[in-house]
Amino acid sequence: MLNPYLVSSQTSYEPTRSLYEGMIIECIQITGQNYYYIPRTLSDRLDNVFGEDVLSSFDSYAEIEAYLDDTEGFGGEGNMLSKFGLEVRATATFIVSRTRYTETVVPIVPANRNAAVRFRPNEGDLIYAPFSKSLFEIKFIEDEAPGFYQLQKKYVWCIRCELVQLNNENFNTGIDVLDTTFGQNIDRLNSTVTDETGFTILLEDGGVVLTEDYDISKKYDDHISYGDNSDIKKEFIEIMNFDKKNPFNELF
Q1: Who contacts 243 (Cβ-Cβ below 8 Å, separation ≥6)?
Q2: H helices within the chain, ranges in order?
Q3: Bond from prior residue into 146 cis (ω within 30 degrees of 0)
Q4: Would you say residue 124 has pLDDT above 60?
Q5: pTM exceeds 0.90 for this model
């Protein structure tokens, strides 16, 4: 039988809950570290193919304490060499008090965020770890662990993250290290193709393989296309013929 002095009514839980929650917050503030929570601001430009916002930005931040659940270092597959080059696939799990999140982060989330998810961390938001200078993207929110309904209440958010893979988002957070490091033009199409010695591959007329027309002074939504590949397309058409009987027929 349950203890009748603690569970006789819903009201009798409150003092014990408040004490327990206060201990959790104090424990995180003692053993955790300060992180920057950066909410993602979505626009109305939705990619119907991939189902993602192509013009999202990061315009605010909140500093909040969190406990890093990975005590022996970041998780994930670590550094690996793939066909795309060196990839760093680190993961991290952060424990954040629900009360502290409501007090510090909820007031700065974008106004256009859905009311049904404003109260909790959102997938796609970022967390910056100053001690390692790592920028993580939230991938999943676990809301029932750790501390599974102790005293019939949930006290923390368990935030599972991966190192972010940026897609030319705009950074205006007010954090200099973030805005200068991650807010610059990082479009890969801005780099010309080079060989193993570092020599830039040129066309017959002396132009580069990929001519970039991106202008960093323009707004992100001003760009219709990211690159001008007409030279490559012209050369391709001159040597290849997509015939129905022989689609890979060469014209030379």
Answers
A1: 249
A2: 4-7, 14-31, 98-104, 176-181, 230-239
A3: yes
A4: yes
A5: no
